[in-house]
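For the sake of clarity, the format in which proteins appear in this thesis is described at this point. The fold follows as a row of integers, each naming the local backbone shape at the matching residue. One such record is shown here in full, so that the layout can be seen directly:
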Amino acid sequence: MAARPYRVLLALSDHSDLSAWVNLASQMAYPHDNIEVRGLLTVPEEKSLSEGTNLAREWRDVLEAIANDPNLPTPQSSSVVVDYKPMSRLINDINQANVDLLLVQWSGAEALTGNMSTDDMLQFAPCDLVLVHGKPWQHKGPVLLSLRGGPNASLGLHVAKTLAENESITLFHVTDQGQTTNLRPMLSDPRITRTVTANTSIGEGIIRESVGHRSIVMGASFHKPHTTASPSSRFMNDVDSKTQSSLVVVRALRPEALSFHQPTWPLVVEESLSTKVDRWFAESTFHHSEFADLKALMALKEKQGVTISIGLPALNEEDTIGNVIQTLKSALMDEIPLIDEMVLIDSNSTDRTVEIAESLHIPVYRHPDILPEMGTYRGKGEALWKSLHVLKGDIIAWVDTDITNIQPHFAYGLLGPLLRRPEVQYVKGFYQRPIKVGEKIESFGGGRVTELVARPLLNLFYPELSGIIQPLSGEYAGRREALERVPFFSGYGVETGLLLDILEQFGLEAIAQSDLEVRIHYNQPLVDLSKMSFAILQVFIARLEGRFGTEMLDKANRSMKLIVHEPERFALDIVDISDQQRPPMIEVPAYRERLEKATEAN
């Protein structure tokens, strides 16, 4: 079994004995850290998959604790599969992955495991398969090994040795000339201290011989789809119910069996878009507390060899900028150097914003001074786009500077999913947004443009993004390799444009969102929210033109009449509101030149 690397995927339906399972998977793998872990979260079919969100978070917390336990082998990856039939989905994923052995926390022969029958697992798993039922195996002890020989012999002996450790192994086999011959190499193994030959009922013999053994390891067969039935679940269940040992079923995959596993295998069914979004919501909605262990995040960062930058866009934020910088810098740069650089990107502030930032030793750039040959526009989106040219990190997070209740988790809550999940390219923050009504603070009511404009339009035209809680939030992070390949709108439409374009280029699975709990900032007047809505609508129309091949925006009015109702003035003011679209930064010659120089320097 150790002649080549042997990769084990561990599938669990509950996490109560997770450390014992991880140790078992490690002992079966070669090298011992060549393991991955998947939690199977089965949602009842009458419910939305999004109902699994909180349980998925609970699973991730436990998996992360295991990954950070110095006394346990560290899995190469761990995640939660949320599905109506999570085992079917896992097996489908194995078809596209390099997995040698699927080790399953088995519910029993006649029960469903991850909502999949034992017969289907034995038939469709496209790799070696080990099903383990019961808990006695968690304490090493004698093992009863029942095999007929054939392709299961090597795998069965490997599993038996793992479970027995230094204890004895009893080999139980039937009196069949051909099969006995196949077992001859095993008969000379020094770990097998006793051999029993059955000449009556196999089941009765196994039950009789099981006394004194902690585990029973049995072989099962691979059967071609739509031919003979797989091994009798009744027989396995009879052995399981009449013994005190853990029942372990092994099934090695013969090379010729691989031809029966095509990409369109029978257990994969087309699912609705709504179900896809619900699953994404359950699996990709995080909470900042999942990443509160900054030392663990630092270890991930160092292991991956990435650098992290925080960009702080600002315009006249003298009341809050100092606290924002000091809070993030103290926790994420001084105490633990999770962040490599923090830079203020100023949009020509006329107050003390720049002075305060410089006094705190934070580099400051005025965005009109960056890439001057490209010209400049007003707007936050312009500042973010140009910040890509000066920020050096492989991962970039942007945090608004008007937050009055800033905490370190506004940054690390965005970075955590990117460090934990290599497939994630972009993370949006979300939070409760209190709103001030008169002198009273209401717990809810902020995010009015989000609820009245952005989310309804997403549900109408981009339902893939209907699970995004706050598409317009000002806190988000992404990998440079993704951010540099999408265009940026210069003003209010920047968040909308980034979300739509990242979906288009990288897909929904590349996006995640993180709960930052509560964000308190200065709520904008209604007239400013109206202008924001007008710009966001233009972005939606621009992207819909590309998606549906229509031309609307060129014929649309780009100016907005704003109602002015003051004590001495009642009139309409006309304001031009039109975001400019900046090209992907990777297309800018000066940026490419900067990247080339950085590569040569390294």
Summary: The chain has two domains: 8-255, 278-601. The longest helix spans residues 526-548. The chain is about 35% helix and 20% strand. The domain at 278-601 is CATH 3.90.550.10 (Spore Coat Polysaccharide Biosynthesis Protein SpsA; Chain A).
